[in-house]
Design brief:
Blueprint: H1 4-31, H2 36-53, H3 61-80, H4 90-109, H5 116-124, H6 132-151, H7 153-161, H8 163-168, H9 173-195, H10 197-212, H11 218-243, H12 247-285, H13 287-294
Helix pairs in contact: 1-6, 1-7, 1-9, 1-10, 1-11, 2-3, 2-4, 2-9, 3-9, 5-9, 6-9, 9-10, 10-11, 10-12, 11-12
Length: 295
């Protein structure tokens, strides 16, 4: 019981991450750009490396804004990499950007002696070290992003689910793609500093994938994703304290275990029921099979 107050703000941070990333994950999965989170996070890390080489405080505002500027450049690249005919998958450009940013960060880190620990903290994250100020600041930032996406939700959803129809309505796909990835960059730059790349990736993808097993519409998906993220966050924090394990890695593994459980439930109750219904319909259409079954 004595450790519960210590876990309050890390748990609140995980709830905030769940709220914004479960929503963005719906768009990411629909667009098929699963690894955009990792790519933008690595581009932000490259910006932080350049900031360190320039003599900035890695935890200061200067480093943050420089990382954000690098992220905006990545957002522009991803927005314009979306070709109309789709002969080159957008995921290919995202993978190339990730590889190049990773290599450039390694080259830059080789010149930043004694400062690599700061970059490691940014990439790996330490959600237990989050403070009340960090949580409130992040909540305000994500709240602003949430309002922005709510105002333009119809355009963002139409572009994610039916880009041809959006283009037919005269919507500038590249312009709104840039706004989407730029707002996404705002979120990722802050989230990675708190929770690390792996945990942020799980908050982005796993709730959305789990929700897709049971729902087709956006509303139910968000409800399932938010519920899953909240329960997994609570279980992950609890198990990390109970078993004395790193909190971030524990939450990631809990996400994986819960997703497997959801898949098994879907396989047993939903997929099995659909298979039996299809088999029944097929036998009803075939008189010979129906006679055999009756005998």
């Amino acid at each position: 019981m004595e450790i519960l107050p210590f876990l309050l703000w890390p748990f609140m941070a995980s709830l905030i991450l769940t709220g914004i990333h479960a929503y963005l994950g719906v768009h990411v999965v629909e667009r098929g750009v699963i690894f955009v989170d990792l790519a933008l996070a690595q581009i932000a890390a490259l910006g932080a490396t350049v900031a360190i080489l320039a003599g900035m405080d890695p935890h200061g505002l200067g480093a943050y804004w420089l990382s954000l500027a690098f992220t905006f450049v990545g957002a522009g690249v991803f927005a314009f990499a979306r070709t109309r005919r789709g002969h080159i998958p957008q995921e290919a450009f995202i993978g190339i950007a990730y590889a190049v940013a990773s290599a450039a960060a390694i080259l830059a880190m080789s010149k930043a002696t004694g400062e690599t620990e700061h970059l490691k903290d940014m990439l790996v994250g330490n959600i237990l070290a989050v403070s009340r100020y960090d949580v409130l600041k992040t909540a305000l930032l994500y709240g602003g992003m949430g309002v922005f996406h709510y105002i333009f939700r119809r355009r963002f959803l139409l572009i994610s689910t039916d880009p041809e129809q959006a283009e037919a309505q005269g919507i500038s796909i590249r312009f709104w793609d840039f706004l989407f990835y730029a707002s996404f960059g705002f979120v990722v730059t802050s989230s990675v500093a708190i929770a690390g790349v792996l945990l942020v990736f799980c908050y982005l993808i796993v709730p959305s994938v789990g929700a897709m097993l049971f729902a087709d519409r956006v509303g139910p998906r968000l409800a399932i994703g938010w519920t899953m993220g909240t329960l997994v966050s609570a279980l992950g924090v609890y198990f990390s304290v109970l078993l004395d394990l790193p909190t971030g890695a524990t939450i990631v593994c809990t996400f994986g275990a819960v997703l497997i459980a959801m898949f098994l439930v879907h396989l047993l109750f939903f997929h099995g029921r659909e298979a039996r219904a299809l088999a029944g319909a097929a036998s009803a259409e075939n008189p010979k099979d129906r006679v055999v079954q009756e005998r």
